[in-house]
Amino acid sequence: VWENCFEAVKAARLKHLVRHGGSGRRGAALRSDSANFSSGSPSKKGLQDRKSLFHRLNDFDSQQVQRCWDKELTTKICGKTPLLKGYQGDGHSSDDEEMQRLKETVPKRVQTEAAAGSAREIMLRTSSLALLDSSLMKKSAACGLEKRPLDAYEEVMGTRSQILRNVKPVEMTVTNLARILTCFGVERKKTAERIAGFLLVGSLPDQSITKLQQDQEQRVPFEVFYRFMKALQGGRSRQEGAAEALASDGAEPLAKAWRESELLRRLLFAVLTGQNGISRSAGAAAQRGADSILAPLSFPQLLDSLRLMLCTGVLMEVDGIYGESAAVDAEDIHWNKLEILTQFLLDIFFRCEAGEASGNADPQVLADSGLSFNGFERFVAWCPGVYTGLLLLLLPLSFRGASFVAEEIDLASRQLTHKAGELRAKVSGQTMSLQRRHVDRLFGEYVVPWLEDDLARSGVGVAVQTLLSLGFQKFTLWDVVVV
Length: 483
Description:
Elements: H1 2-20, H2 25-36, H3 44-78, H4 91-127, H5 129-143, H6 150-166, E1 171-173, H7 174-182, H8 189-202, H9 209-214, E2 219-221, H10 222-232, H11 242-248, H12 255-260, H13 262-273, H14 284-291, H15 299-309, H16 312-319, H17 337-357, H18 373-382, H19 384-394, H20 401-413, H21 417-458, H22 462-469, H23 477-482
Antiparallel strand pairs: 1-2
Region (Disordered): 21-48, 88-117
């Protein structure tokens, strides 16, 4: 029985050896041994030799099976044709070299596949949140809210939070923000830098001023930019039909929402005074303390801030030949339209600041002190129309800027540079037209009555000095109104 089994196994092994044994020294030796025992009568020594050959064949076959398995594993992992094509030449030397090469390349492939599989698993678990939530809702409806499987829900929420923490936040450079603000009517780079500085420091919830100063390139987080755009659109208090009213005239439907927006109030205060405030992460107590500090504000500083808010065309009309770089002397003021507006705003600001300290205080006492944010808050409450007018001077296209930005992005994606240039010219023209209208409205509704009151109180006041500086020797009340 043993001999019959041995002959059957030997025949199968020899057949496999002839097909796959290769031409190595070990394969040739096995074929020679098997040929010697292929015939002859079995003896005790012959049986032992045949048993030894049987074990050698088994060992050789197990090595071949292991190598075939390695080749199959390499094919599945690498996705390529296996490197081993059989046992050729000097069997051990070639096999060892190929196996050494596989040992060096396969682990890297395995690690890559494992990482990709882990990422795919996380993405699948994250994207299945809606389905899981739906199944949780069905289970909660079936068995009650008390038995809702919160463990699985919290596990998925924890995975989502971990992924979001590893995602790089969306941020905007100051240069890109300045380009976006041009679609809202801000044409001067220095004004855009003031707005960016306020958004970075004054309204940033989780970042300190020291860290911002250490950064080489400051970036505005998406959350802050989104709150700024949302405040311009009226926030939650935006009424139905406001878009149609804004497209036809101006910001009357949004005036109340703009007055209630702390972000916009602090933004206008920062642009007028050049003070960005402190970070929101400093706390409410530090914020209240900073709001009571007087920011330096003089006639030249406020005049320079108003010049930064106006486009070039309107600035030449209201500021005459003196322009933005002209030095202003408080004792010899050439009274033009912009300077009259500056003096009017200073008078209101100082009265509001004095009204906060003591109701009967002389506003000239605080002329050299400055304006605090608390005093500016009183100004917004006392003169809401002037506040809205100043905000419209700063952002005249606040109600159309979003559509202009979307249109410019669409033209840029289609590489229509000529159309994009035409859009820029359209934005510039509308900015100049609207700013001219807002300046005239401020003068007609607020500055002229202020001049009339000053003339009625003192007989010879700011209005008379204005007319004298302009060369008027004889003038009437109508001349004051015209100026």
